Amino acid sequence: MLGFDPTLITFTIYIFGMLLIGLLAYYYTNNLSDYILGGRRLGSFVTAMSAGASDMSGWLLMGLPGAVYLSGLVEGWIAIGLVLGAYFNWLLVAGRLRVYTELNNNALTLPEYFHNRFGASHKFLKLISAAIILVFFTVYCASGVVAGAKLFQNLFLVGYSTALWYGAAATVAYTFIGGFLAVSWTDTIQATLMIFALILTPIFVLLSISDTAQFSTVLEQAEMAAHKNFTDLFSSATPLSLLSLAAWGLGYFGQPHILTRFMAAYSVKSLIKARRISMSWMALCLGGAIGIGFFAIPYFFTNPQLADTVNREPEQVFIELAKLLFNPWIAGILLSAILAAVMSTLSAQLLISSSSITEDFYKGFIRPQASEKELVWLGRTMVLVIAALAIWIARDENSKVLKLVEFAWAGFGSAFGPVVLFSLFWKRMNAAGAMVGMLVGAITVFSWKAILPSDSDWFKVYEMIPGFVLASVAIVIVSLISGKPKQDVLELFNKAEKTYKEAK
């Protein structure tokens, strides 16, 4: 039916390769710790690549290039904010969280860590944090499903609803089978593919426009035609909108799919090396994504006959460039990078959502005595259930990858970011402060644009900013007016801090 299309053949080989890795990981997965955290034995390189790949989802190869193609370099503020946020997340949170989670009853999930860290006598804290993970991750997973669907739709020339199932099935299969090890091993390959694609593509786009002088001339013509200044980083946007773009970096402190990579690392020292690898990879990837969107502006302006798809769907700009500029075999590899970006993040999110249900709801409330085998298989079943919900959310063909990611990112950043930071640096914080902080952050993200008039300047502010600030204030106030943490909680905090300093 599809014929001997080199692009499709390469693409299909990649998918089956990922499934094979899932099968291999299956044989190394013996218990829930293996399924959720890979037994805490990830080395520096795999930790770095896995953290990067699970972070940079389909929005990196579709959403960001599409935004830059539409609006210009002003969208690059997202990248600036993300680089700063990621660096400080590695510097301030990674090592501490690795130590603190292990000392707090070897916590396998964030909800479990919060419960143990604050010595909560009830399970409301675990319940609320697990519920927040499920809500926002279902939306986040939907963004990955949308990105995958648009890729399969473009490549296989099938309807959106059919492509939706193709894209989801590819990821769900190896996550279901292999758990965290499969996700981490495939992340490493996927991260390599992504950086290859993001460095190579903008270079080839630039080379296709002959010389620098012509590039500048064509860009100016494109700006006049669109009535936009694509190179302007400041004047085309308000201070509030620039702050909103840069504020994406705040979200790093609360993303469960990134934080679990820190928890799974072999040691604190391995994280130092991992930080250098990850930040280098990230800077190159973000620069490449911006380059793709930016260089595509003059390319499609000079080739309007090729621009129908990208003008209709800017988020398809990378897909179209790969198909137009490269040999079909190379195009297949490059397009696999989009699927890699989608798969790496979606698999991480499915796994964490599944682990929240398994570890925090089922084992925490329903069957505390459940066997390891039972928990692993329940985790696999929940992967399927959450994937089905994500597919249902993603069924709208007009869904935008970046918008879905933007909302989910703000939700986690606001609900968990302040709680994670304060839990690692402020021993006076208590369970009541953590619970109220989470709720305030999550509710603010949901309600911000619902209660403000759409024509106000504050409506345009990214929900992350008020959510993060209000959650932080709530944590401090509630912690101070409620009782001090128990002595054993304070002692464990001091022990964790001492262990971390000695381990560096």
Please give the structural blueprint.
Layout: H1 6-26, H2 32-37, H3 44-55, H4 58-71, H5 76-103, H6 110-117, H7 124-156, H8 160-208, H9 212-226, H10 239-246, H11 256-263, H12 268-302, H13 308-312, H14 317-325, H15 328-366, H16 372-393, H17 401-415, H18 417-425, H19 431-451, H20 464-481, H21 487-503
Helix pairs in contact: 1-8, 1-15, 3-8, 3-11, 3-12, 3-15, 4-12, 4-15, 5-10, 5-12, 5-21, 6-7, 7-8, 7-15, 7-16, 7-17, 7-19, 8-12, 8-14, 8-15, 8-16, 9-12, 14-15, 15-16, 17-19, 17-20, 18-20, 19-20
Offer a quick outline of the entry.
It contains 21 helices and no strands. It is mostly helical and 504 residues long. The termini are far apart.
Features:
about 80% helix, globular, mainly alpha, Sodium/glucose cotransporter, single chain, about 500 residues
Structure description:
The chain is mostly helical and 504 residues long. The chain has a single domain, classed as Up-down Bundle (Sodium/glucose cotransporter). 78% of the residues lie in helices and 0% in strands. It is built from 21 helices and no strands. It has helices at residues 6-26, 32-37, 44-55, 58-71, 76-103, 110-117, 124-156, 160-208, 212-226, 239-246, 256-263, 268-302, 308-312, 317-325, 328-366, 372-393, 401-415, 417-425, 431-451, 464-481, 487-503. Helix 5 (76-103) runs antiparallel to helix 12 (268-302) and helix 6 (110-117) runs antiparallel to helix 7. The radius of gyration is 22 Å and the shape is globular. The relative contact order is 0.19. The mean pLDDT is 82.
